[in-house]
Each structure stands twice: as C-alpha cells, then as structure tokens.
C-alpha cells in the first residue's frame, strides 16, 4: 500500500490545499511581470497593483509550506490575506475611478435626494424631484428614465433601505458612491469567507476571480448602479440559512433595498421547507415580512398610497421600453400587440412554471434556486444587464454546499415532500397510479399557466385598433456630412384629438450611442386635405441625435395611451 493510500481524507484535503496555495502563488508572482511588460512605467496605480499582487503571491507560497496541521491558523491567515488584498486592490481602483469621474445614475441621485428630504423631516415618497436637482449630481439627460407621457422619472420607486443607507454619508458630506464600494468589497469578502469556512480555502481566490469575470461588477459600482446592496444582504441570508431568524432578517433587508429579491422567494421557501421543515420555512417568511414592514413602517403610516404606488412602479409605471429581452419585438414595432401587460403576464407565468418545476424536481435542482430567477427576468419588459449579472454571485455563495454536500446534508433533507398528501394516502400499492395522476395534473397546470399570456395576446390582437399610424416619412435636407436632423411625418389617426399630443424618439440600428434612443421635438403639425390626417415636422439641434446616411432607424411616435412605429433607411429610396 502506498503512503498516499494510507493518508486520511483530512490529510489528503490538506495536501490538495497546499498544492492549490502553491499554484496560486506561482500564478500571482508571474502576473506582475506580465502587467509590467504591457503597461511599462505608466504610473502609481500600476506600481501599487504589481506590488500588491507580488506580495499576495509570496503569502500564498508561505501558506503552502506551513508545518503541521494548523488548519485554523491557515484558515485565519488566508482570510486575512484575501481580505487585505481585496481591500488594497479595490481601494486603489475605486479611488482612481472616483477621482477621475464620479458618476451617479438617476436612481442613486434620487436616493441621495430622498435621504436629504428625509433628514429635513419630509416624506420622500410621492414627491417628484426637479430635473435641476438630479442634474446637480452630474446625471446627464441621456441617463434619465423617460416616461411615455413625456418627462422623466424623478420620484422614489424603491423601499427605504435604498436611501437610509446613504444618510451617514449625506450628513458627513461624503460621496454616496462609497456605500456601493463598501458593499462591493463586502460581497467579494463574503464569497472568500464562505469558501474558507467550508474547507475550500484554496478555491477562494478562484471564486473571487470568477466573480470578477464580469468586470461590470467594478464599473457598475463606479457608475452608481445600486444593485450590489440587495445582493449582498441576500448573500448573507443564504450563508446563514442554518441559523434561526437571521436568514429572514437579512432577506427582509435585501427586499427593503430593492424589489428584485422577490423573484427568488418561492424557490428559497421550498428549499428551506424541504431541508429544515415547515417551522423553519414559516419562521423565514414571517421574519422577512416583519423586518420589511418594520423598516418601512414610518413611510407606510405617513402615506400608504404613495408608498405602495412607488413599490409597484418599476413594473407598472408607463415608461419607455429598453433592453435586450424579447420585449424588443414590441418597442421596436415588430409585434405591436404584445405590450407591457403581455410581457408582465408572460414573466409571471414563466415564474409560476419554474416554481412548479423546482418543487417537483427538487432533488436535481435543489441548489439552482439562485439561478432560476435569471430565466424569469429574461422575460421582463425592461431587461438590463444589472437585472441578471448579480445572480451568479449568489450561485458562487451556494457552490460550497454542492462541493461539500456530504458534510452539509442533514437528516431532515429529502424527508418532506411537496406532493399532495391526498395522493400519498393511497399507500404503496397505488404508488404508480398516484405518480401518473400527479404528473398529468402538473402538466395540465403548466399548460394553463402558460396560456394566460397567450389569451391576453389574442385579446389584444383582436381588440387592437391602430388609432395612430405613420403613413410616410420624408427626411429634410441632408447636410454635406451626410446627417439629417429634420423629418416630416405624415400621420393618420382614428382616435380622439388628444392622441395627437405626441412625443418622438428614434431607435438606431447598430452600435448604441444611447439605449433610450434619440428624443426629437415637434415644431408644427398641420391638418391634411382629409380629416384625421396630419403632417408633423420633428427635429433636433443635438448633434449626437443626428441621423446618418445609409443607417437604419425606428421612428416612434407615442404618448401614455398609444405608440406607433416606422422603419426607415436614411439615404435609401425605399421607406418601409
């Protein structure tokens, strides 16, 4: 028998850790020279980065050589090294980013203004902030969220943790972006700590590297996108699922920061129920609800209508559609009947179907509860990268459970069933019949759920009346550089005159200079020779919104009640 065969599993794990530490050390002392060979003598940032990585590589090599089985010492040392390195590298990146160009999104600017309003003793919900106030935070018009009725979203649409966290920084006159930096550092630290605590310390740096594969985790923090807050609270909830009350408290905090965690709730409840029992699941949901209500209670009591209107606004408010999801078929004009309500119904239907699938295929999908919300949100009317990109961080948190599941499974797991008790009461001799009935029942339920948006689509299709239609478009005089900044739109209408109060935006094919599109103004409209026919001239003085020769565009005329589209190719004799 070889010496390796005589080693205990614990000793073998320790050998693997040592090799892992050494491999990481070799990699980390190689990387600085590679960086140096690329950037040369480019400045202090790269010098500090190269030095920090070199020291980190040295420390990993030392860890691989520590004598004895000092697992606790190695664990604590590794945590300190990882956290120290994260702090040093992240601080350098964040400081340079903030010093170079501090950026606010409209969401972060509204949160900061809401914090100031709250400090003045006023309710921030139901109040519209002025564009001047938002622009004072450096938010460009192109980064605001346009309404279908005209203007922009300038009111608070999130629960109160979104702005309460900013209050200390507002009081101390510090940049609120620091909050996002702290939470970004914290989520990376939590990932590292989870791997170290689960005896997978050698994988912690790899896990952090995987988290940073999407470099927008850093860029979004620098650009004022706040989603890292809710995902960090949710990560804490997942890490503490074996505890009582704490998971629910952190989930409540996550939901009080933003509404997105609601999409994981049914999957998470099934997981807690199956693993820890009905009592734990009830504790989780009650603790989460109590935490959410208590934190938001002052604002609920001040004006419940304003508060709940704000909470549902992200899914119900009449705002323009943007993003890379299937809803592009609608807001690009290809399927004008499948409106926002259709995609909302479709998303909810997909959500319900996957909850059923997760419940019935729990043994295979038990750890997929952090991934399933992604497929649900893909069907959302507005789909932006920050809606999806943070969920894999939560999957990184749960991977140690999968890798070390032999150490983590408890005897309650798998003993409970979500199948209807009326089926199981037949006994073992009817097991096959029960199974068949259950499968067919589930199949019928899934079909019925999926028919909901289809019925809505057919209803919209049959009742849809195109009250407004762009019949033709004539470009103005093209400049010598090949640009157009004026269009004549011939529009027919059958609805009321109020529908002629229109806004105009133009979507571009190819590289997106502005995902919201180009917003043009109308300078006049004149009645045509026939009733219900007008000619509207639209234009822009913004050179960034000029149309270029040989490019294709989608022209949209819209208001809060109706939208109409026209596809045009500038410079072509063919107008669609």
Give an account of the 3D structure.
This protein is an alpha+beta fold and 576 residues long. 55% of the residues lie in helices and 10% in strands. Helix 8 (177-197) packs parallel to helix 21. It contains 24 helices and 9 strands. Strand 5 and strand 6 form a beta hairpin. Residues 1-7 and 406-429 have low confidence and may be disordered. The chain has a 7-stranded antiparallel beta sheet with strand order 1-3-6-5-4-8-9, with no helix packed on it. It has a two-stranded antiparallel ribbon with strand order 2-7. Among the domains are: 323-383 and 419-464, no CATH class; 468-569, Immunoglobulin-like (Sandwich), CATH 2.60.40. It starts with 8 loop residues before the first helix and ends in a 7-residue tail after the last strand. The protein has helices at residues 9-39, 44-65, 71-100, 106-119, 131-135, 161-164, 167-171, 177-197, 204-211, 216-222, 228-239, 246-257, 265-276, 278-302, 304-316, 328-331, 340-360, 362-365, 372-377, 385-388, 391-403, 405-408, 421-424, 431-463, and strands at residues 468-475, 483-484, 486-493, 503-508, 518-527, 533-539, 547-548, 552-558, 563-569.
């Amino acid at each position: 028998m070889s010496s390796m065969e005589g080693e205990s599993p614990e000793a073998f794990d320790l050998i693997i850790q040592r090799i892992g530490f050494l491999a990481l050390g070799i990699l980390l002392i190689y990387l600085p020279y590679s960086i140096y060979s690329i950037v040369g003598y480019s400045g202090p940032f790269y010098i500090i980065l190269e030095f920090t990585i070199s020291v980190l590589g040295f420390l990993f090599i030392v860890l691989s050589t520590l004598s004895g089985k000092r697992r606790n010492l190695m664990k604590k040392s590794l945590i300190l090294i990882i956290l120290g390195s994260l702090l040093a590298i992240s601080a350098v990146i964040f400081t340079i980013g903030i010093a170079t160009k501090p950026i606010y999104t409209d969401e972060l600017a509204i949160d900061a203004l809401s914090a100031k309003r709250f400090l003045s003793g006023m309710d921030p919900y139901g109040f519209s902030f002025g564009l001047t106030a938002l622009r004072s935070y450096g938010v460009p018009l192109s980064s605001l969220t346009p309404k279908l009725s005209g203007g922009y979203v300038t009111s608070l649409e999130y629960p109160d943790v979104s702005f309460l966290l900013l209050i200390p920084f507002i009081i101390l006159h510090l940049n609120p972006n620091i909050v996002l930096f702290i939470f970004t550092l914290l989520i990376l630290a939590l990932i590292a700590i989870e791997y170290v605590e689960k005896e997978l310390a050698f994988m912690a740096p790899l896990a952090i590297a995987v988290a940073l594969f999407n470099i927008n985790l850093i860029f979004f923090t620098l650009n004022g996108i706040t989603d890292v807050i809710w995902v960090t609270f949710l990560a804490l909830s997942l890490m503490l699922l074996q505890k009582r009350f704490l998971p629910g408290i952190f989930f409540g905090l996550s939901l009080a920061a933003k509404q997105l965690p609601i999409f994981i709730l049914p999957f998470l409840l099934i997981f807690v129920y199956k693993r820890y029992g009905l009592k734990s699941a009830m504790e989780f949901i009650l603790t989460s609800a109590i935490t959410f209500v208590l934190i938001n209670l002052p604002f609920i009591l001040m004006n419940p209508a304003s508060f709940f209107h704000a909470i549902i606004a992200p899914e119900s408010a009449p705002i323009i559609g943007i993003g890379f999801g299937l809803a592009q078929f609608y807001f690009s004009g290809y399927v004008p009947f499948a409106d926002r309500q259709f995609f909302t119904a479709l998303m909810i239907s997909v959500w319900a179907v996957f909850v059923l699938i997760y419940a019935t295929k729990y043994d295979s999908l038990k750890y997929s509860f952090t991934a399933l919300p992604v497929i649900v949100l893909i069907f959302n009317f507005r789909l932006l990268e920050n809606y999806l990109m943070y969920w894999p961080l939560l999957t990184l948190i749960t991977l140690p459970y999968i890798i070390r599941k032999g150490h983590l499974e408890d005897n309650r797991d798998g003993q409970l069933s979500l199948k209807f008790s009326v089926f199981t009461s037949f006994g073992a001799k009817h097991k096959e019949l029960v199974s068949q009935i259950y499968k067919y029942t589930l199949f019928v339920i899934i079909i019925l759920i999926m028919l909901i948006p289809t019925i809505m689509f057919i209803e919209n299709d049959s009742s849809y009346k195109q009250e407004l239609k762009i019949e033709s478009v004539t470009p103005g005089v093209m400049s010598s550089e090949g640009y157009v900044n004026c269009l004549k739109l011939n529009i027919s209408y059958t609805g009321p005159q109020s529908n002629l109060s229109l806004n105009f935006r133009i979507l571009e094919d190819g590289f997106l200079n502005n995902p919201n599109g180009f917003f043009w103004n109308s300078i006049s409209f004149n009645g045509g020779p026939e009733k219900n026919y007008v000619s509207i001239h639209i234009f822009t003085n913004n050179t960034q919104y000029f149309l270029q020769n040989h490019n294709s565009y989608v022209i949209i005329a819209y208001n809060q009640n109706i939208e109409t589209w026209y596809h045009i190719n500038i410079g072509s004799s063919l107008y669609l």
